[in-house]
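ok new one. same drill as before - structure tokens go in, u give me an amino acid for every spot. 446 of them this time. try not to just spam alanines like last time pls lmao
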């Protein structure tokens, strides 16, 4: 039955694949191999399948290579855009800080000028009061002198009349009249000098009044300029604080608790002392003092935000070109295919890729840890812990203090891993949270 079927197939293919013979010649004899139509069809089918498989495999490998290249190029472009934006934001932050420092310096100079002008104004007021007091003394002296002159005239007339009745001498009368004229001349000269002094005092009082008005005008202009400075400082503080506040809230952290904890831990350092301004002679400086202290309070709060941001994991653990391969949440286990919670995020890259600390902290564990492989744990402030797993090499030791950006290890494939990658976790109060919340929250700030 099998031979009959084979013969029928050979007969069917004989038209397209006639029987061939392959001769093998040696020194003593010649042999041949018969290639029947069915055998040729089998060889042709096998060769076709081999060529097709080779073409498909090459196409798959080429497409995978092209896709990986495009992804790397896209990752590089995104990294360049991210770094340029980061540099621009850093420059903007530095400019804001420089403007705030210059504004604070201008404000100090303005406060000194206000103090000097206030001292000059008080001195002018004291001088004006002294001039008014001197003018009153001169007027009192003048009135007393006029009164004494009138009394002297009356007494002279009385004595002259009495002398004339007693002696009847014209010579004595003439002598008395001469004495009276001399007295009147002396009084006239004294009164003229007093009047000239009074006029000079009045002119000085007018000049002093003009000076006081000029000082008041300069003071008003200075207050307007200070108000503009205050407004710019308040706006700068507000603009600088809002992104930081949004960053912490986007990461799920309470800004009030963070600032309270940082303020408690850094009490007495980098704190701005409230300004006390004398309000003698004006009631407006109290408002200025309040605005100054509000600005200083805002700058101090910005400083606390800066310290908190440095101690929370807002940075990325890798800075080189890598692939983001797995997100936080439920996923299919790559080992056994079951559904389970993935408590971190994965980055794939070459072996030895530098792994960096994402915030300031203290290394609490550095070594082999079961399925994590080579693991580094870092304890940060605010009850936050970060984990860096599957490392090929560890560069830190337990108890060592690290800063953001320090190299703590190299990417590897140790532990329960299917390939070279970094498994990165963030834990808040012992519970795993999505690390991308922190990384994305800081993209528009740092």
């Amino acid at each position: 039955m099998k031979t009959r079927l084979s013969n029928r197939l050979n007969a069917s293919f004989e038209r397209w694949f006639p029987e061939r013979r392959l001769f093998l010649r040696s020194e003593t004899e010649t042999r041949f191999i018969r290639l029947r139509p069915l055998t040729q069809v089998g060889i042709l089918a096998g060769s076709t399948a081999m060529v097709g498989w080779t073409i498909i495999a090459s196409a798959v490998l080429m497409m995978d290579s092209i896709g990986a290249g495009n992804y790397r190029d896209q990752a590089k472009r995104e990294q360049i855009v991210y770094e340029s934006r980061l540099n621009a934001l850093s420059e903007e932050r530095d400019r804001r800080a420089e403007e705030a420092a210059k504004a604070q310096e201008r404000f100090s100079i303005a406060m000194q000028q206000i103090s000097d002008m206030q001292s000059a104004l008080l001195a002018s007021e004291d001088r004006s009061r002294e001039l008014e007091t001197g003018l009153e003394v001169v007027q009192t002296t003048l009135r007393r002198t006029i009164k004494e002159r009138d009394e002297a005239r009356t007494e002279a007339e009385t004595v002259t009349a009495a002398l004339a009745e007693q002696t009847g001498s014209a010579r004595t009368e003439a002598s008395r009249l001469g004495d009276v004229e001399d007295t009147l001349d002396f009084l006239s000269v004294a009164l003229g000098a007093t009047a000239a002094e009074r006029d000079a005092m009045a002119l000085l009082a007018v000049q002093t009044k003009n000076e006081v008005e000029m000082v008041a005008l300069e003071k008003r202009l200075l207050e307007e300029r200070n108000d503009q400075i205050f407004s710019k400082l308040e706006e700068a503080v507000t603009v600088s604080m809002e992104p930081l506040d949004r960053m912490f809230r986007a990461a799920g952290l309470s800004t009030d608790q963070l600032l309270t904890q940082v303020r408690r831990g850094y009490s007495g350092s980098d704190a701005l002392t409230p300004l006390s301004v004398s309000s003698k002679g004006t009631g407006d400086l109290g408002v200025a003092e309040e605005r100054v202290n509000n600005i200083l309070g805002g700058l101090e709060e910005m400083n606390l935000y800066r310290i908190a941001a440095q101690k929370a994991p807002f940075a990325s653990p890798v800075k080189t070109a890598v692939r983001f391969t797995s997100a936080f949440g439920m996923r299919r286990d790559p080992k056994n295919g079951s559904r389970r919670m993935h408590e971190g995020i994965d980055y794939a890259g070459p072996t030895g890729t530098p792994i960096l600390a994402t915030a300031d902290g203290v290394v609490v564990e550095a070594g082999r840890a079961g399925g994590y492989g080579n693991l580094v744990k870092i304890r940060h402030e605010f009850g936050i812990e970060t984990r860096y797993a599957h490392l090929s090499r560890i560069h830190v030791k337990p108890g060592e203090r690290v800063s953001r950006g320090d190299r703590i290890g190299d990417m590897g494939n140790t532990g329960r891993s299917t390939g070279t990658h970094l498994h990165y976790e963030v834990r808040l109060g012992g519970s795993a949270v999505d690390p991308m919340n922190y990384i994305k929250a800081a993209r528009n700030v740092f």
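The first helix runs from residue 2 to 13. and btw The chain has three domains: 2-65, 96-311, 314-441.
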